[in-house]
Amino acid sequence: MSGSQSVSALQAEGITKSYDGRVIIRDVSIHLEPGELVCLLGVSGAGKTTLFHTLSGLERPEEGRVLLQGEDITGRPGKISYMLQRDLLLPHKKILDNVALPLVIRGEKPRAAREKARGYFAQFGLEGTQDQYPAQLSGGMRQRAALLRTFLGSRGVVLLDEPFSALDALTKREIHRWYMGMMDQLQLTTLFITHDIDEAILLSDRIYILSGQPGQITAERTIQPPRPRGLEFALSGEFLDYKKNILSLLER
Q1: For 182-207, what is each residue's pLDDT tens digit?
Q2: Is-contact 74 61, C-beta < 8 A?
Q3: Which long-range contacts (CB under 8 A, 24 or more apart) does 233-237 make?
Q4: Which pLDDT does position 100 carry in this prediction?
Q5: How far is the C-alpha of 96 from the C-alpha of 229, rounded, in Å?
Q6: Sign of the CA dihedral with 234 first, then 240, 246, and 252 last
Q7: How far apart are CA 60 and CA 72, in angstroms?
Q8: What's the whole-number mean pLDDT along residues 196-219?
Q9: Greatest CA span in the chain, whole angstroms?
Q10: Which PROSITE patterns match (predicted)?
Q11: pTM of the model
């Protein structure tokens, strides 16, 4: 953090979480600064989803705490938006009602929630889909709708669990570019899980490596070229050096 008065957008301090007597993650500390996109990278079983459940308040840790913009939100669900790998749009609801759902859950009247959500449809590239149903949308459009729903439920910080993994390569590239732009426009801060090392290097400001059993933060890497990063960077020797280093950290 820069300056004595600055507050991290999201901070986890010494998080330890167990299930049925087995420690899943131990003494995990991470931070996200406002506007950052940070990736959590690790092999299956290292505890990435457990950490997300803890950060979002769905689970309470045995040790440690979670701070959202300086406020202790440990074990308090509904304070931070969490988007799972699948879009989980409700098939029987129109896209506008799907997107407005977090506002209704928060206590806003349905009509007011719809109007507030409607105001973001053009910005999210969803204009014209308000009265459609999820089955009528492409995978990329469904993901945009899910991300808008996540944004409306957020306080500027979102957790994304493999948000782009179900998309084909071309759609994924398009959504990557679009999400980078939306982050800047909306001043969002993002923590996301991925198993795709290339994706992590292309998108992230920083990467945390979570590994071991129980899972612990074993390394942190800053990606130097400023975002957005295009095909030229993806084909560069610098990109390959990052990838070799991260692969070696994951294989330890």
Answers
A1: 888 888 999 999 989 999 999 999 99
A2: yes
A3: 233/202, 234/198, 234/202
A4: 94
A5: 32
A6: positive
A7: 12
A8: 94
A9: 54
A10: ABC_TRANSPORTER_1, ABC_TRANSPORTER_2
A11: 0.87
